[in-house]
């Protein structure tokens, strides 16, 4: 089967396409600071969105740490909608803007299962410069206000 043609709407965020790998750091008042390694993949199937998968692992022990999956859907008005699911029982709906190769979003909805930790708000910024992606995640959770949680630098490897 041949590669589908990239949808015109998805082409607005084609700078995300590919496999990205690198390292990041996390912190939050309720946990010890930590480091992680990561892989993010953005793919398309010819529809007006990109599919997203993310996985992280411990840099020395190599055991899995986190994962997410979802969709990035650019809008004709310069906006973007992101829908993500986490295996910890959290789902996010985010909306934001695309400015060149920078995406900035804020949660419109954070849903959780009965056993998931309380997360009330998330913000994400993705910035791509050539084959380097940097991102930051801010989070309000477990009674803490919105603040820095994660940052990473990844390189396109495929």
Radius of gyration: 16 Å
Tally of domains = 1
Helical content class = under 10%
Please identify which CATH superfamily we are dealing with. Answer: Calycin beta-barrel core domain
Unreliable parts? none
Largest sheet descriptor: 10 strands, antiparallel, barrel
Tally of DSSP helical segments? 0
Number of strands: 10
Question: What descriptive keywords fit this protein?
Answer:
single chain; 158 residues; mainly beta; Lipocalin; 10 strands
Task: Give a short overview.
The protein has 158 residues and is mainly beta. The protein is built from no helices and ten strands.
Task: Summarize the structure in words.
The chain is built from no helices and ten strands. The chain has a single domain, classed as Lipocalin. The mean pLDDT is 97. The chain has a ten-stranded antiparallel β-barrel. It has 158 residues and is mainly beta.
SSE layout and pairings?
Layout: E1 18-28, E2 31-43, E3 50-57, E4 64-74, E5 79-85, E6 90-99, E7 102-112, E8 119-129, E9 132-141, E10 147-156
């Amino acid at each position: 089967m041949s590669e589908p043609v990239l949808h015109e709407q998805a082409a607005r965020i084609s700078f995300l396409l590919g496999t990205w790998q690198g390292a990041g750091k996390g912190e939050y008042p309720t946990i010890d600071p930590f480091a992680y390694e990561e892989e993010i993949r953005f793919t398309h199937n010819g529809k007006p969105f990109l599919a997203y998968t993310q996985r992280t692992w411990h840099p020395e022990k190599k055991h899995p740490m986190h994962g997410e999956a979802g969709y990035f859907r650019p809008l004709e008005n310069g906006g973007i909608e992101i829908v993500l699911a986490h295996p910890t029982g959290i789902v996010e709906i985010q909306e934001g803007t695309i400015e060149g190769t920078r995406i900035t979003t804020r949660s419109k909805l954070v849903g959780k299962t009965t056993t998931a930790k309380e997360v009330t708000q998330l913000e994400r910024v993705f910035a791509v410069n050539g084959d380097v992606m940097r991102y930051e995640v801010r989070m309000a959770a477990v009674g803490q206000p919105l603040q820095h949680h994660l940052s990473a630098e990844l390189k396109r490897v495929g």
